[in-house]
Amino acid sequence: MLDSFVLYLPGESGGLCVSQGGRFPPFSSEGKPPKRVGKGHKDLTLCRVFRKKTCCDAAQTHPALLSIRRLALTGEASEECLHLWELLECSICDPRVGVQPGPPLICTSFCDRVFQACSNAYFSMDAKTQVLAPCGANDFVCGRASEWASNGTELCLAAGFRVEQSVGMHGGIEEESCYGGKASLDSIADSWGPSRSEKPHKTGNSGLLEDFQQWLQDMPSNERVSWAVGGLVLTAGLLFISKRKSHNQRQKLAAIQRAARRLEVKMNPTPTSSQGNRKGNRR
What we know:
It holds the Pfam family Folate_rec. Keywords: Disulfide bond, Membrane, Signal, Transmembrane, Transmembrane helix. This is Folate receptor-like domain-containing protein. By secondary structure, the protein is mainly alpha-helical. It has one domain (about 1-195, about 205-280). Helices cover about 40% and strands about 5% of the residues.
């Protein structure tokens, strides 16, 4: 048990990618160390904050992207729920998670926060994977997260993750072994810094990035989950540096939802009546 804990400690870099099993697609980099993902057909479609070092490619991030799209379109999720669920789905691309066998190990405190934000969003049991997933357009039995689970631990387990079961101080050494605690958020923070082998590019956005990094240094660790999701791609990027739900943020979310609906119609044209039937069968 101690050995497996040590592998999670920050700075550990000797691990090799191990497919997570369960609902998570196998890594094409199985048996190799996490590495930088280049552009092309295997580029990450989500979770790009991990591009510099990850076991993931498009095989892992595409299902995560579809999950977020369903949550936004038919899951009736709040903005905070979308942000946190995105961060949860991207756990598989964290290089510290990818070198450990078994589904991603999530911190209890983070699962609780996801449950609190997503308790009113709609989910269904995926017939293929037998795990809880955001309600889709073709799902006839959907229920709120609070109807499927009574707390964060139950929600994460039902969604196919493992949960850190240690009882103790959240944010302390107990949470260094799981995803969603201070150690993993610090690791994500480090990924924002430029590589030592890369020369910084002077662009019009450099001031924004510098301000962001300074803002991050001054931020309490328990608030970092809010900006961490901003670097994952789908929602607001570096512009998500405010905790307020501004008018601009609501406009961005609405634009994402409209674009996703158009894509949904093109990929899977179905009569509008089917959605009415599905909603009528929600638990």
